[in-house]
Specification:
Length: 215
């Protein structure tokens, strides 16, 4: 594993209005390291992931993601898979690529890895089917798989996972993550979950307790 730092947090605190959610966190996540973060609901782990993804700014402290410090630059460095992904009224292809060029062959590989092939093949225009109002009719599992496919298509060095298989049954979720192991190889993965069994083989598992990280 590379000892070059991918994500650096120094004395980070975060408040929602008057409520302190993160309390003076300092941490280093290294390039190529797979980090699991566990903890009870409301302990701050998803908030930390939103900070690392550039969706929120620290109330205090500094955060660097591959050297980037502004939200705009941070978002270029990461591929997030959030618990409630946004599916837009676009085609399946556009929901996955978000305007970036991705070859047809690569899209086929991504659909296979995320187990979306059969569903896409059943659509009227396949991967170019316009979802429109159907975006609201997707199952939670389909939406999560599209979000994972989106992260694969963006293909950054840092992958953020927030309960990425919560809408899937345990066996399917474990199978999904196993299928993504090749994609994760060499990348920095930060994975927030309640399910520690999803973190097999990770380099470190940290616990978030009352806004603090513990080994």
């Amino acid at each position: 594993m590379n000892k070059e730092i991918a994500v650096l947090g120094e004395n980070i605190s975060f408040y929602y209005k008057e409520r302190k959610v993160l309390d003076n966190l300092s941490f280093s996540f290294y390039k190529g390291e797979h980090i699991g973060i566990v903890g009870e609901s409301g302990c701050g782990k998803s908030t930390l992931l939103k900070l690392i993804s550039g969706l929120l700014l620290p109330t205090k402290g500094t955060l660097k993601v591959n050297g980037a410090t502004t939200p705009e630059e941070i978002r270029k460095q990461i591929s997030p898979v959030m618990q409630a992904p946004m599916i837009m009224p676009l085609s399946v292809r556009e929901n996955i690529t978000l305007g970036h060029f991705v070859s047809d062959e690569r899209i086929k590989d991504i659909l296979k890895a995320t187990k979306l092939t059969d569903w896409v093949d059943s659509l009227p225009q396949g991967v170019d089917t316009y979802l429109g109002n159907q975006a609201n009719e997707l199952s939670g599992g389909q939406a999560q798989r599209i979000s994972i496919a989106r992260a694969m298509a963006k293909n950054t060095d840092i992958i953020l996972l927030d309960e990425p298989t919560s809408a899937l049954d345990r066996t399917t979720g474990e199978g999904m993550l196993e299928a993504l192991c090749e994609f994760f190889e060499g990348k920095t993965v930060i994975h927030v979950t309640h399910q520690t069994e999803m973190l097999k083989g990770y380099n470190r598992i940290l616990r978030m307790e009352e806004g603090r990280l513990c080994e």
